[in-house]
User: Fold these one by one.
Assistant:
Number 1:
Amino acid sequence: MAWTKRQIVTQAFEEIGLASYVFDLEPEQLQGALRRLDNMMATWNAKGIRIGYPLPSSIAASSLDQSVNVTDIAFEAITTNLAIRIAPGYGKTVAPDTKMIARMGYMTLLARQAQPVEKGIDRLAIPMGAGSKYWRYNEDPFFGEPIVEIDAGPDSVLDLE
């Protein structure tokens, strides 16, 4: 089942003690929390945590009933971090357990999104080594230009004529 932004916002309010079954949340409160959610996810996206959250193109383009296609491991991190962001606006203090869960969830997302940066090496500056005698024939003891391979992704077509 896909979660909606409304469910995430409601769960964040429950985390700070403003559960919807006890307190009626006003539409302005929900919209304010939605803006904070979108801002938080945009910040995470800028930091490289791209988990599939649909970022709106403008404030008016975001909807509480929009489905979010985020992996299950991200929901706890999203809801607890959103609860930390909205709690001061309602005069609430976040429990230390919530802060710990939010930090652990955020660190888990960072760890999952961390990818080593692929670096190319300058083949013209690396000698071939003592075992390679190719340089005797072309007067160049270094590797030549790399051979560029043609690569087509799964969503593209490679047309050979």
Number 2:
Amino acid sequence: MNSVLRNLLMLLSFPYSYKNNLSNRNDSKIYKVILKQLSSIKITDKNIKKTHLEFNKKIRNILVKKELTNFLKIGFLQKIFFVHNRLFIFFELLELKKKNWKFYKPLLKESPVGNPVRYFLYPDSSGNTINHIYHLSVLEDCFGNKLKSINSVFEFGGGYGCMARIFYYLNKKIRYTIFDTPIINLLQYYYLKSLNLNVGYKDNQFRLINKHKDLKFRKNKKNSLFIANWSLSEVPLTFRKKFIPTIKYHQFFLISFQASFEKINNYKYFQELSELLNKKFVIKIIKNKFYKGHLFKKEDHFFLIGVKK
């Protein structure tokens, strides 16, 4: 039923469909790198829950088949990574217009890579991009943080790379690290490389990592941000614990989470995490006033936001 509703909502954007010309130019070179990496990757359930284990298997399948030109039109991928024609997005958009439209409007311009569904009430952008920028505006509202001043970002679970692209628009010199599964790293590689960004697995401007041992940080780094949009809240508790020191390394953090996930009480968990961090951070837990889940699963969602004292 969810997939049927999602497809019906996509039809609202039909008049604004755009032909994807950008990614076709470099696809053969990009796929060569992807397939080479893919040959050595084994999908395990060690650090991910069942929902994401199955998702990684499906992503691997489209990587093998080289079916990425229109990947943001694929239903199962949209379910996890991409918000499109939902009504709550319109209220987020209105909120951005009230806050600082001159600043946020240029950031909303969508990229053609992956052929994303354009938001039917604002076709210059997509629901997903609007949603991401709204989240950043919540951080800015809380602590008066100037987003343009952020020069280093660590994103736990980077989706397909949308947030990384937004930060590149904010700061062309941004240093950006994405931690994710090896399979999702390859999807991010495709997306960011198609935008001609410096992305890779070494000392690139956009660095992709999937092993905890590869994390390297300077403590108390100024103008740095840890961000996790519905990602830290969807991995096993033992794995979350490994990244608490990573949060502490940064000046700001922004974590989005749902009240529960696969029998884990997330609200209780993040309350306890805030108590653990409050000696070094000023912390707020804010209820997401626009997003309440979907038609078949109503649920409260929250932001956990912090700035170093």
